[in-house]
Design the sequence.
C-alpha cells in the first residue's frame, strides 16, 4: 500500500468555451496527501478547488498531468479508484423522498455491501453525526444542517480510505458547521483520509492538518495554518482606528494594511507595547490580537478571500 | 478499449428509486391523469373507440414513464448532485441508469396494471396476443427510458427540461394514432405513424389483439422500427451513461 493517499503532479485543466477564449481552471497543480491526513484546499470562489477535486474523484478528465489515488491513476484506471473513494459534492443534497436511514443504507448497498453490514454501518454512521432522532423522517423535512449531516453520514458509512468533501459546510449555521466538523474529525480518527475544499478560513484552520492555498488554478502556498501565519512576518496584529495619519510611523513596526481608515499592523510581541503607546499618545484606540489566517491569505494571494 | 457494460447494483438502485416513488403516492396517482381524462372523453364522445383508446393508454402509460425518468435524472443531477456521489463509487453509470429507469417503471406500474386489466375485460384476446402486447410495451418503455435518460444529461437547468419533457410526451404520445385508430390518421402519413415508437406500438398492440388488422408489410415495418429503436436507443443510452458520467 503506497504511503500517499493522493499524489497529483502538474495537473492542468482547460475548459473550452463556445465563442470565447478557453478558460484555464488549473495551471499545474501538484500536491500530495499522506494517509490519515485532513487536507484543505483553501481559495476564493473560482480558484480551481472544485475542478481539482472533481478530477481527483474521477468525475472530470484532466487536460494534463497525473493524479494517483492510492497508487491508481484516476484518468487511466477510474474503475480501480472508485471503490477507494467517496464524495460529498458541492451543494449536494440527500434524496428528499428518502429518510436519512434509507439514504445511507441504499448508498452502501449500491457500493456492494451486504445487507447486514450495510444496516449496521448505517446505524453507526447516523449515530456518529447525531441524526438518530431524525433517522426515519423524510429528508425533505430536515433542516439544512441535518441534510448536510446526512450527506456526511453517507460517505462516513462507506469507510472509504479517501474522502472528498467539496465545501461541506456552505450555507450552514455555526452550530451545524461545528457538528459537521466534529463528524469529519471522527472520520480521520477512524483512519480515513480527507481532502476538502473550503473558502471559510476558520473551517480550514479548525479542520485541516495542512492547507493548500489555491488561486487562479495554482497552488501558491502549502503548510499548516500556524506555519502559514508565521510567514506573515509577525505573530501579533495591532489595529489602530483612524490611524491613517500615522501611516509611515506605524509601517515601521511591521507590515501595515489600511482598511476603512483602520490600519492593521502585523508585528512581533516585543514591539507591541511601543506601538500601542504611540497610538495612545495620539488619542487613537488600538486593539491587539493574534495574526489570523486571513492575514496569511491576504499576504499570499494579495486579495481577500471574499473578494470576487 | 472495448465497452463492456456492468450491471451489478442495478437491482439495488431500482429499490432506491422505487422507495422514493412509494414515499410520494400523489405522483403515482397523477401519472394516470392524462390517460384517465382521455378515456373519459372517448367514453363520452365516441364510445365505440374505447378499446383503441384503452390500448393506446396502455402504450402511453409506458411511454410517459420516460417523462418521469427525464425529470428525475435531471433533478438528481442538477438540484441534488447525487449522481456525482454515485458516479464516484463502484456502482457503474449504466447500472445507475437502468436502476433508475426500472425503479420508476415499477413505481408507476399501478396505472399500467389498471389499464391492462380494463383492456383484458373490454378486448378479449389470446395468450399469444397478450404476449405480443407485453413485448410491445417493453419495447416502448425501453425507447422512452433510453431517450429520456440521454436527454436528461444534456441540460444544466431544470427549467429548460420541463418543456422538452412535455413536448416529447405530447408530440409523440398524443398527436399520432395512439389513442385512436390508425385509419383516422392521414393515409399519406401512415408509414410515419408506423415508425414512431408510440403509434407503432399502438398499431402492433392493436393488431396483436385483433382490433386493427395490419398488412404484412406494415406489420414488418412497425415491428422492425420498434425493435431496432428499442435495441439501438438502449445500447446508445448505456454507452452514453458511462460516457457522460465523467466530464471531458
Sequence:
Amino acid at each position: 500500500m503506497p504511503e500517499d493517499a493522493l499524489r497529483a503532479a502538474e495537473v492542468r485543466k482547460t475548459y473550452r468555451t463556445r465563442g470565447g477564449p478557453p478558460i484555464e481552471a488549473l495551471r499545474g497543480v501538484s500536491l500530495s496527501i499522506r494517509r490519515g491526513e485532513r487536507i484543505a484546499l483553501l481559495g476564493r470562489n473560482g480558484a480551481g478547488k472544485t475542478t481539482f477535486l472533481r478530477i481527483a474523484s474521477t468525475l472530470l478528465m484532466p487536460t494534463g498531468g497525473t493524479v494517483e489515488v492510492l497508487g491508481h491513476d484516476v484518468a487511466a484506471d477510474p474503475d480501480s479508484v472508485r471503490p477507494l473513494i467517496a464524495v460529498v459534492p458541492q451543494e449536494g443534497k440527500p434524496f428528499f423522498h428518502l429518510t436519512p436511514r434509507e439514504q445511507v443504507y441504499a448508498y452502501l448497498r449500491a457500493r456492494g455491501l451486504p445487507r447486514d453490514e450495510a444496516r449496521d454501518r448505517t446505524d453507526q454512521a447516523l449515530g456518529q453525526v447525531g441524526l438518530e432522532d431524525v433517522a426515519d423522517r423524510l429528508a425533505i423535512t430536515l433542516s439544512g444542517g441535518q441534510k448536510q449531516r446526512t450527506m456526511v453520514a453517507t460517505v462516513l458509512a462507506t469507510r472509504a480510505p479517501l474522502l472528498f468533501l467539496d465545501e461541506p459546510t456552505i450555507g450552514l449555521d455555526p452550530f451545524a458547521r461545528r457538528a459537521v466538523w466534529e463528524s469529519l474529525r471522527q472520520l480521520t480518527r477512524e483512519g480515513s483520509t480527507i481532502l476538502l475544499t473550503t473558502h471559510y478560513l476558520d473551517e480550514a484552520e479548525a479542520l485541516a492538518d495542512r492547507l493548500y492555498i489555491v488561486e487562479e488554478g495554482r497552488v501558491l502556498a502549502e503548510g499548516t495554518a500556524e506555519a502559514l501565519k508565521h510567514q506573515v512576518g509577525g505573530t501579533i496584529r495591532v489595529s489602530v482606528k483612524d490611524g491613517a495619519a500615522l501611516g509611515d510611523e506605524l509601517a515601521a513596526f511591521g507590515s501595515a494594511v489600511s482598511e476603512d481608515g483602520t490600519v492593521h499592523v502585523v508585528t512581533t510581541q516585543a514591539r507591541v507595547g511601543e506601538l500601542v503607546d504611540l497610538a495612545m499618545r495620539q488619542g487613537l484606540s488600538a486593539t491587539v490580537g493574534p495574526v489570523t489566517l486571513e492575514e496569511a491569505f491576504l499576504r499570499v494571494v494579495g486579495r481577500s478571500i471574499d473578494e470576487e | 478499449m472495448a465497452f463492456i457494460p456492468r450491471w451489478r447494483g442495478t437491482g439495488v438502485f431500482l429499490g432506491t428509486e422505487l422507495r422514493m416513488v412509494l414515499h410520494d403516492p400523489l405522483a403515482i396517482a397523477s401519472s394516470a391523469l392524462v390517460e384517465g381524462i382521455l378515456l373519459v372523453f372517448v367514453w363520452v364522445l365516441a364510445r365505440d373507440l374505447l378499446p383503441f383508446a384503452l390500448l393506446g393508454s396502455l402504450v402511453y402509460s409506458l411511454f410517459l414513464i420516460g417523462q418521469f425518468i427525464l425529470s428525475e435524472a435531471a433533478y438528481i443531477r442538477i438540484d441534488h448532485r447525487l449522481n456525482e456521489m454515485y458516479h464516484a463509487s463502484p456502482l457503474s453509470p449504466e447500472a445507475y441508469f437502468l436502476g433508475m429507469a426500472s425503479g420508476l417503471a415499477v413505481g408507476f406500474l399501478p396505472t399500467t396494471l389498471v389499464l391492462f386489466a380494463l383492456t383484458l375485460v373490454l378486448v378479449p384476446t389470446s395468450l399469444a396476443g397478450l404476449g405480443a402486447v407485453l413485448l410491445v410495451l417493453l419495447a416502448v418503455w425501453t425507447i422512452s427510458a433510453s431517450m429520456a435518460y440521454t436527454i436528461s444529461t444534456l441540460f444544466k437547468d431544470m427549467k429548460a427540461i420541463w418543456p422538452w419533457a412535455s413536448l416529447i410526451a405530447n408530440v409523440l404520445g398524443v398527436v399520432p394514432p395512439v389513442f385512436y385508430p390508425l385509419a383516422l390518421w392521414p393515409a399519406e402519413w401512415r408509414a410515419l405513424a408506423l415508425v414512431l415508437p408510440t403509434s407503432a406500438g399502438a398499431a402492433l398492440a392493436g393488431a396483436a389483439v385483433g382490433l386493427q388488422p395490419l398488412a404484412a408489410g406494415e406489420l414488418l415495418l412497425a415491428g422492425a422500427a420498434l425493435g431496432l429503436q428499442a435495441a439501438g436507443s438502449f445500447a446508445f443510452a448505456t454507452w452514453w451513461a458511462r460516457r457522460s458520467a465523467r466530464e471531458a
About this structure: The longest helix of chain A spans residues 174-189. The mean pLDDT of chain A is 91. The domain at 233-290 of chain A is CATH 3.30.70 (Alpha-Beta Plaits). The interface with chain B takes residues 54, 57-61, 78, 82-83, 85-98, 102, 106-107, 109-112, 138, 151, 154-155, 158, 164 of chain A (CB under 8 Å).
